[in-house]
Every structure is written in structure tokens, then in C-alpha cells.
Amino acid sequence: LRKCLISMDMRHLEKSFQEMKRALQNKDTFQNVTILSTLETLQSTKPTDVCCMTNNLLAFYVDRVFKDHQELDPQILRKVSSIANSFLYIQKTLQECQVQSRCHCSQEATNATRIIHDNYNQLEIRSAAIKSLGELDIFLAWIDKNHQKTSGA
Amino acid sequence: DTAAFLPAPQNLSVHSTNMKHLLTWSPVILPGETVYYFVEYQGEYESLYMSHIWIPSSWCSPTEGPECDVTDDITATVPYNLRVSATLGSQSSAWSTLKHPFNRNSTILTPPRMEVTKDGFHLVIEVEDLGPQFEFLVAYWRREPGAKEHIKEVRSGGSPVLLETMQPGVTYCVRAQTRVKAIRRYSAFSQVECVEVQGESLPL
């Protein structure tokens, strides 16, 4: 079963994130709490879970984080918009895999996703969104590692 | 009051070539006055999930001329809405919105300019630098019956790339095309350029 790899301009995504990281992490009032911590424990994501986890995390950001985050600074707004629209594009390319049923979710992947949402629900919504945006580098690094054939989105 | 009613800019359109996107519109002309324009955009994400959000363009909030380079704003391969408003002092016109959303995958990709040279017996190509999103596919062959075409992927332009060590007396030909993976498209091939190294063709 051919692995479901997505093509993504990681260089641009990481650049967008780096340019807003300091501003976001300065607004993060709960420094000793993490939302994507489970991803550190998912270092050895099974190849068969990569598509599902990617999909679930993209949905987490697209359907929750970016919506819950309210931004007044146009500079930050542009960076968040750039990442949000890039994630939207990647979701579309992943849909092709889902249609070909190559995006199976194991119990482990489902549990990991639920933990992330539980972590998010523990915090007040704006704080949770800020923290999740500040942890985008964890997700981007995980994507980079698990989608080795990345180059442009 | 000359600007009691400030008309909204008209005829918005986007001209995009090689991933450079230029928004243009018809200027609002008020004799003796300088009219400025504000450009804003929203990607598909904003239009789907937060349609009230419009983002000030990186370079044109405000701008004086009737055009705006929105390349740094259009950073994903999804449809983007664009709008322009004219201002004069404290007066602002209504917003004028691009009729059809713009997606960068509609950009015109032109065949790359290239320079094919000889460095001693080396066949060398230098393709124009079109930016970090551009890669190039170079095809080269010996101009003789039954010759096989060789392919080389060039990751970025702007620097010489060695293709092959040439045999004296043989003509070598080259053509190239641009590739942009971010939009999954490539250009037509360039014109063919051929070079030859003088001298006796060595006996096999």
C-alpha cells in the first residue's frame, strides 16, 4: 500500500512560524503546560498512522486553533493566515488519500488525538489557541520527519 | 467638497507570471488631488471560517499607484479574495472586490532563460534565478542520429551547472523547463541551444 505522502513547502511554513514565534510565545501565560506534548511521545509513529495523525492535527488547527485565535497585529495575522491557508491546501491533498482509503486511524492515533483535544480543553480558549500556535514548530517538525518526500505545497 | 463622494476603484484584475502576482485597477482621478489606495486580502481559510476578517496587504496599505504586488500575500495554493478602497484625506470609498478569487496555480509559467556555454570540454548551463519555488528540468543530447536525451534536475537558478564532458567535433544541444512543485505545474520547454567543441573527433 503506497504511503500517503503530501507535498508541502516546509521552508515557507517554518519561516512564517519563526517570524511570529517570539510574539506568540510571549503571550503564552501557561509556560509550564503543553498541548502537543503527546507528539513527543509519538516519536515512533507507525507509517500506517502518519496519514491519520496528519489529518487529525491539521483538522485540530484548521477547525479549532486558527478559529479560536483572535489577532490584531497585521504582521502576525498575515503569518497565521499563510499557515492556515497552507494547511487548508494540504487537507485537500490528503482527501485524495482518504478517498483511496489509505488514511486508516489506529486506536493509538485516535487516543493521541483525543489527548491533544483534552489538553486544549483544559485551558481557557484564547490561551489554548495561543499555546497551540506557539507549539506549531512541534507539529511542523513531526510532519517534516514523517513526510520525508516534502518539497512544495 | 470635491470628494463628497469618492468612487470605488474599478476594473480590478490580477496579472501573474512566474509566481509574481500583480493586482491592478483603474485609478480614481480627482483633478489636483492625490488619491491613495488600501488593498486587503483573505485566503480561502478566512472566507470559509472567518469571512469578516480581511488582512491588510503587506505592501499596499496604503499605496499611491493603481497597482499592488501581492506576491508576498498570496502564499498558499488556495483561492484568494482581494479588494481595494480609495482614500482622500479622511474620505474613503467603498471597497471594490476582485470579481473572481485568484489562485496562484493559474500563474503563467514561461520557459526559463538560459545560457549554454563551454568551459574547456565541459558543457555548462546557467538558468535564470526565478526564486526559491522554482526548480528546472534540463534535457541535453548529442546532435547525431539515434542520440539519447539525458535529463538533469537543477534545484535552483543563477549558478552554472556542469552537464557533460563533451567530445571534440560533436554538437551538443540543450533545452530546459521550469517546475513549481507548490502549484504542481511546469512551463513549456525553452528554445534549443547547441554548442560544439572544435577539434578532431577522437577515433573510438
UniProtKB/TrEMBL annotation, chain A:
Which molecular-function annotations from GO does this UniProt entry contain? cytokine activity
Q: Which SUPFAM superfamilies match?
A: 4-helical cytokines
Under the heading Pfam families, the entry gives: IL10
Q: Which Gene3D superfamilies match?
A: 1.20.1250.10
Cysteine disulfide partners in this protein? 4-97, 51-103, 52-105
* Domain of life (superkingdom): Eukaryota
Recorded GO CC terms: extracellular space
- Keywords for the protein's UniProt record, in alphabetical order: Cytokine, Disulfide bond, Secreted, Signal
Grouped into one coarse class, the protein's main location is secreted
Localization in the cell: Secreted
The parts of the chain that form a coiled coil are: none
Main function:
Immune regulatory cytokine.
Q: Which family does it belong to?
A: Belongs to the IL-10 family.
State what protein this is by name: Interleukin family protein
What is the source species? Castor canadensis
Protein's gene: Il19
